[in-house]
Each structure stands twice: as structure tokens, then as C-alpha cells.
Write a structure and sequence with these properties.
single chain, FAD/NAD(P)-binding domain, alpha/beta, five-stranded parallel sheet, FAD, oxidoreductase, four-stranded mixed sheet, 25 strands, FAD/NAD-binding_dom, NADH-Q_oxidoreductase, NAD(P)H dehydrogenase (quinone) activity, binds flavin-adenine dinucleotide
Length: about 400
């Protein structure tokens, strides 16, 4: 049993936010900005690293590109929120405590759980041991190191979803001496219109990426992958991008979770089993009229802001409002010089309109670069971060809960 760290005065309501990803940062800055003048509320943000991980750029990290140094403690300066660096090892929702690095314990009154997700390397045997992932900046750096050392050979990108497409394109562009093979069940850009899909395929062809759609990787071996049907493909490096899973902490804590380990929320983003726990971002299973949201930054940041607004309302004795969100785009990089942006309906189905080429590159970069300045603006003007498309009739949930 480690030392118990006392936080806050007896009177102060302590909000602890776990995870400083896109969603957790949004929650911390939004809430801290709103309670800055109050001495009856304290906000603590816990994260594994002091440096903000731009997850949307991890395929760039994986190809050796240097990203900006974004310091979380520096961003929080002046907000009154406290930053705790550490690895969360357990949550006890009955005792209302969080264990960090096994030996520190934080008590909370309200918890915001935003620990994100990682690549699902448990999906097939061998992936955990023999495949690289983009689960964290450190994981991406390991792949960068491996790719830099390869003078020739084959890189298999397993998973033809958008992370797989972006990664295959980036690797092929940065390392033209390597053969890049993109494997997956679906055609790259499967959820896009035929026009956008064709554009993606042409870009991958131009970069020399060999695409094999309609295949399933069933095993990752040292130096190879095995496909359903028994075929084996030699690989000098395998990047696993197929599927995501969430931290087992929520399920271990006894919080109600779905089949992916995500915390099931009520309309206000509170855990259905433990209403003093809010769940946000990739770690939350949030139902909208069109179904349960899937993990994106475009939806994750609003969940963080909404949780902060709900907590702020609850502190004032008001009822939190229902969260509503509608998707609006799917921006996909195809190396540094090309991209495609598929505009979508609120339920994420594709609209006819898409951007391609230089215009799409500029759009994608603007979107990717926007979270950090958004947090900066929110410090001074919290309302500026509370604007997002609500999804209209698409997101309205009709059933009575
Ligand atoms: C290559 C790539 C490209 C992407 N492109 C897009 C895009 O164009 N648009 C889009 O909308 N989405 C995109 N995504 C998805 C997007 O990045 C995620 O949906 C988003 O990061 C989710 O935000 P989050 O805050 O829930 O989690 P994360 O951003 O994953 O943050 C979770 C944080 O919690 C920390 N953490 C986790 N476990 C612990 C622990 N036990 N203790 C302490 N800290 C912990 C992590 O270190 C991290 O800082 C992309 C993802 C990838 C991998």
C-alpha cells in the first residue's frame, strides 16, 4: 500500500481528469477556465507524459519527422489546473480514488475518464510481440528507428482503415527504397464515395504501395505475416493498425463497459453505472441517434468540452444537458504532398463533395494543427471551444432512458 496523497481542502470539490489526449485536454482547459475564480473547485489533470501526443500525426513520427514540442504543464499555466505526470494503474469508483504509478493515490469527487485507446494487438496471435503500432509516440519512434535502419525490404501495414492508408502512404513517400504492402479486409477508403476511393487508390499506386484488399491477417510471425488460407508474406517490419481497444482499467474498476472496453455513458456523458464518472473521447461508448460514436478527434474534443460544461452545471446545482454531435468530414493524408477530404453527413455517411490534392493537404493540415491553439483560446474564452455541429435529426436519440 503506497502513500495517500491528499488533494484539495476539505471543502473544495476535486475534479480529476485522466488522460491529456485531445479529449482530456479539452475537458481540463474548459473546466479550469470556467472555475478559475472559484476556490470551492479544484481541477487535476493526470497523464503519462508532459508532452502532448499529437496522435493524428503519429504516422509522421513513425517516419522520422520531428513534431512540435507541446508542453501540457505550460499550456495549463494560469488556468489553476494542476498537472500530475504518472501512469494510472487503477480506479476505485467506490472509494473514489485513482492509483498512479502504483504508489500514489488521488481522491476525487468527480472523475473524467479520457484514457483513449491503443492498437488492438490482441486481435491475432503474434501482433503484440512482433508488430509495431502507433499506440503512443514511443511506439511510433520504435518503428521510425526500424525503418531508418532498413536499406531494403518489405514493410507490411496490416489494416486498410484510414490509419493504415495514411501510414502506408507516409512510409512509401519517406522510404521509397522499401516495398510497402497494405493488407486489409476492405478496399482503402471503403467508407468514401467512389470518386474519393478512386483518388486514394491512385495516390497509393503512385507512391508504389501494393494494396491487397479482401485479405485477413491471422498471425504475425517474426519476419512475416500469415493470411487466412495459409499464405505467408515475408516482412521486415509489420505495422499493426487494425482495430483499437481501450485500457482494461475501466472494466477492472467495475464500471459498465461495452464489448470494446469503452465506458457506457448516459446522454450527459456520465457512466451509466457510476454517475460521478464522466467518460470522454475514444474511451467512451456514447450513443447518438445514428449509433454509438466511433473514435475520432473531431468528436473527442467536443465530448471533453461537454463533460466540463456538465460538471460546471452540476456544481451550480443544475442538470447537465444531453450531448449531441454530428460528423462533418474525414480528412486523410496521402503523404505530405497529397490528401483527400471526404465531407460527410452527421451520421458519417459520405456526401458527394470531396477535396483532393493541394487544397485537401492544406485543409488536413489546418484540422490537424487546430487542437493546440483551440486549447490556448479556450483558456481566455471558454465559450470559443464550445462550438461544434450537433448533428440535427441524425444525432437525436428517440428512446426514453
Ligand atoms: C495516425 C492516426 C491518424 C488519425 N487521424 C485522425 C483524423 O484525421 N481525424 C480524427 O478525428 N481522428 C484521427 N485519429 C483518431 C484520433 O487520434 C483519436 O480518436 C483521438 O486521439 C482520441 O482522443 P482521446 O483524447 O480520446 O485519446 P488519446 O488522444 O489517445 O489520449 C489519451 C491520453 O491518455 C494517456 N494515457 C493512456 N493510458 C494512460 C494511463 N494508464 N495513465 C496515464 N495516461 C494514460 C495517453 O498517454 C494519452 O495522452 C487518428 C489516429 C491515428 C493513430
Amino acid at each position: 500500500m503506497g502513500t495517500r496523497q491528499q488533494t484539495g481542502t476539505a471543502a473544495a470539490h476535486h475534479v480529476v481528469i485522466l488522460g491529456a489526449g485531445y479529449a482530456g485536454m479539452a475537458a481540463a482547459v474548459q473546466l479550469a477556465a470556467r472555475v478559475k475564480q472559484r476556490d470551492d473547485v479544484r481541477v487535476t489533470l493526470v497523464n503519462a507524459q508532459e508532452r502532448f501526443t499529437e496522435r493524428m500525426r503519429l504516422h509522421m513520427t513513425a517516419t522520422g519527422q520531428q513534431l512540435a514540442e507541446l508542453s501540457i504543464p505550460q499550456l495549463l499555466e494560469g488556468t489553476g489546473a494542476r498537472f500530475v505526470r504518472g501512469w494510472v494503474t487503477a480506479v476505485d469508483p467506490d472509494a473514489k480514488t485513482v492509483r498512479i504509478d502504483d504508489d500514489r493515490v488521488l481522491s476525487y469527487d468527480t472523475l473524467v475518464y479520457g484514457l483513449g485507446g491503443v492498437a488492438d494487438t490482441a486481435a491475432v496471435p503474434g501482433a503484440e510481440d512482433h508488430a509495431y503500432t502507433l499506440s503512443s509516440a514511443q511506439d511510433a519512434e520504435l518503428l521510425a528507428d526500424r525503418l531508418a535502419r532498413l536499406t531494403e525490404g518489405t514493410v507490411v501495414v496490416a489494416g486498410s482503415g484510414l490509419t493504415g492508408v495514411e501510414s502506408a502512404a507516409e512510409i512509401a513517400e519517406r522510404h521509397p527504397r522499401l516495398d510497402v504492402v497494405l493488407l486489409g479486409r476492405q478496399e482503402p477508403g471503403a467508407a468514401m464515395t467512389a470518386k474519393a476511393r478512386k483518388y486514394v487508390r491512385a495516390a497509393l499506386d503512385r507512391l508504389g504501395v501494393r494494396v491487397r484488399a479482401g485479405v485477413e491477417v491471422v498471425k504475425v510471425l517474426p519476419g512475416a505475416v500469415e493470411l487466412a488460407g495459409g499464405e505467408t508474406l515475408a516482412a521486415d517490419a509489420v505495422l499493426w493498425t487494425s482495430g483499437t481497444r481501450t485500457s482494461p482499467l475501466a472494466a477492472a474498476a467495475g464500471l459498465a463497459v461495452d464489448g470494446y472496453g469503452r465506458i457506457v455513458t448516459d446522454p450527459a456523458l456520465r457512466s451509466v453505472s457510476h454517475p460521478d464518472v464522466y467518460a470522454i473521447g475514444d474511451a467512451a461508448a456514447i450513443r447518438q441517434g445514428y449509433g454509438v460514436m466511433h473514435g475520432t478527434c473531431q468528436g473527442g474534443m467536443p465530448t471533453g468540452v461537454h463533460a466540463a460544461l456538465s460538471i460546471h452545471r452540476a456544481l451550480d446545482g443544475k442538470q447537465p444537458k444531453a450531448f449531441r454531435f454530428g460528423y462533418y468530414h474525414t480528412p486523410v493524408s496521402l503523404g505530405r504532398g497529397d490528401a483527400v477530404v471526404q465531407f460527410t453527413r452527421p451520421d458519417d455517411s459520405p456526401r458527394r463533395i470531396c477535396l483532393t490534392g493541394r487544397l485537401a493537404v492544406r485543409y488536413k493540415e489546418t484540422v490537424t494543427a487546430s487542437p493546440w491553439p483551440t486549447y490556448g483560446r479556450m483558456k481566455k474564452m471558454p465559450a470559443s471551444g464550445a462550438i461544434w455541429p450537433r448533428g440535427g435529426r441524425f444525432s437525436r436519440v428517440r428512446e426514453v432512458r
